[in-house]
Amino acid sequence: MTPTDSAQKAPAKDPWDLPDVSGMVVGVLGGTGDQGRGLAYRLARQGQHVIIGSRSADRAEAAAGELGNGVEGAENADCARRSDIVIVAVPWDGHADLLGSLTEELAGKLVVDCVNPLGFDKKGAYALKPEEGSAAQQAAALLPDSRVTAAFHHLSAVLLQDPAVEKIDTDVMVLGESRADTDTVQALAARIPGMRGVFAGRLRNAHQVESLVANLISMNRRYKAHAGLRATDV
Prior knowledge:
alpha/beta, 8-stranded mixed sheet
């Protein structure tokens, strides 16, 4: 059998065979905001080592103390430096400035961008399109030495932070250039009961994923709900 024949006969990798990420340190930039706090709380509740970052170390430490479960607080640069995976959950208007200031600390890190560029007017939420195409693509441009992915866009901060909610029944769309990196992020999402990470393409497809949040906000307002997403037949 030739090497080519052997390669052709090799079984395809099971797309749900995901790595063990339980020992990784997860940093959350913007961890004092609603989305960041919610993600930090959910992951720490499953035993993940979580560090939340803020411009103020004191503020981060205070928020970490409120969350419990061994969550740590640190200034943003220290949080980025000490983490294996870094979730970016900052407001859109501070996205570029923050990431541009952390290029050294985030070099070589797996970065998960969950920022949604949105505008609001009297008609409600609407999507903005960054010059780079999406928040995730802006992150990739600002962090050339990092491995940038996109995920966790469509989660309700209310549900994430509610200790009475045992399961978050939703799928997380994960985008990135490296399948190993997206597998890692999918595995991280799967740490949260009820949640599933689903590969959804490369970063060039991140804009429509980020934009969909405007539709979910409209749904939530109309139905007084906390809508999420499920991908069928996957």
